[in-house]
Amino acid sequence: MNHAQVRALLDEKYRHYDQPGFITLDPISIPHQFAQRADVEISGLFAALLAWGRRPTIISKCRELLLRMDNAPHQFILQHHDEDLKRLLGFCHRTFCDTDLLYFVHWLRWYYTRHDTLEDAFLVGNTQKERLENFHTLFFSLDDAPQRTRKHVATPARGSACKRVNMYLRWMVRPDAHGVDFGLWQRLSPADLICPCDVHVERVARRLGLLERKQVDWLAAEDLTAHLRTFDPQDPVKYDFALFGLGVEGEM
């Protein structure tokens, strides 16, 4: 396919998949349970960072986690007592276990006593690479940060494509007329976002000639996004819907 044909296909599939029906079977359904901004931010962060494996399992584990927080994540983060933390013990999704969860809760409490929104944590830096690196540094800036937990928050400094963090930013930043992404954060621009690069997106992007780099790392995510910006410079990551949908539905 030539450039115009690829764009036409992606535009068509973006319109097809960026619909409310997409929400139910995707981890983004987790933050869609909430109306208050802080609840959306916190539940969305957990849903995005736990998004590995089968989607039904991810959604189930996130619901379990939120139930342990009385389905009031912001209130739990700010008002829990030590005794309340016992209900988090035993939680585990793949290699993310209660040690990691307890640090997440500890950091979020520290953070939300100082800031009203998680958006502030992603604003330091001139490029998206710098912003994600600085977020990672901030997240693990507390003295008792477990070394094992670092693998659960990706950073470009380690060469990671940062798929889950980029997906979270898509959810929070991108205004969406169809109501899938939230567009809660307005100090970051959709034009600066980097496309989440999971196995489905990678496979379809390669078949369409949008990704040539063999290793799926930060440079690959940047290269893919650069191609997508030629189709829509203001909102390149909207094509995540198209690439992911084509891949997960087996169309390519």
What does this entry look like structurally?
With 252 residues, this protein is mainly alpha-helical. The protein has one domain. The chain is 47% helix and 2% strand. It is built from ten helices and two strands; from the N terminus they run H-H-H-H-E-E-H-H-H-H-H-H. It has a two-stranded antiparallel sheet. Helix 1 crosses helix 10, helix 2 packs antiparallel against helix 7 (163-173) and helix 8 (199-207) packs across helix 10. The longest helix is centred in the N-terminal third of the chain and has 15 residues, at 3-17. The radius of gyration is 18 Å and the shape is globular. The chain starts with a helix and ends with a helix. One of its GO terms (biological process) is DNA repair. InterPro entries: CHP02757, DNA_glycosylase. It holds the Pfam family DUF2400. It comes from Hymenobacter perfusus. This is TIGR02757 family protein.
In short:
By secondary structure, the chain is mainly α. It contains ten helices and two strands.
Q: Count every helix, treating DSSP H or I runs of 4 or more residues as helices.
A: 10
What's the gyration radius in Å?
A: 18 Å
Which structural class is indicated by helix and strand composition?
mainly alpha
* Sheet with most strands: strand arrangement: 1-2
Q: Count the beta strands.
A: 2
Task: Detail the poorly predicted runs.
Answer: none
- The overall average pLDDT, rounded, is 96
**Termini separation (Å)?**
13 Å
